[in-house]
Design brief:
With about 180 residues, the chain is an alpha+beta fold. It has one domain. It has 3 helices and 11 strands, in the order αββββββββαββαβ. The strands form 2 sheets. It has an 8-stranded antiparallel barrel. A hairpin with a 2-residue loop joins strand 4 and strand 5. The N and C termini lie far apart (about 50 Å). The N terminus is likely disordered.
Length: about 180
Amino acid sequence: MKPLILSLVLAGAITLTGCSTLVSLNPFVTDEQAVMDPALVGLWTDHEGKETYRISQDGTGYGIRYSSDSSDSYQFKARLMVVGDLRILDLVSANEDAFQLAVHTPVRVWIDGSTLRFDFPQSDWLKEQAGRQLPTVLAKDRTLMTAPGEAVRGFLSKNGADPKAGDEPEVLHRVQ
């Protein structure tokens, strides 16, 4: 019975992350480790103005509201980790659902004045490294890192800045 329940929980966890194929079961940035960067706070939009991200400070982290012309809005919570030049948000859905387990998605960010670039580090290379270095569960095209948060943080600190870890970042511009 326990393997069935675990399978259902893991399947529910993975369905909460529509944008990334590499996610963590556990938070990898704690309140004590979180870094605040006021440059992240504000209203950001893509170059066409069809997608907006409203980022506000929320305690030791951020509240993020995403909306687009073609979909509903989504709310997230995030904490920022900084290791050298590497900046990664620990992003999790703010919506609670008793039948799904929220998972933590790494999002690499770069801020340069009024430009914010972001990428979900999820390349095949990075997922392969995760499978070698951490306990993981595969579900279709997604890799769920089941290691404790500190181990995931160490893994991302070591591998997250590698050019093979991600794709071409998305670019947003500050509106206010």
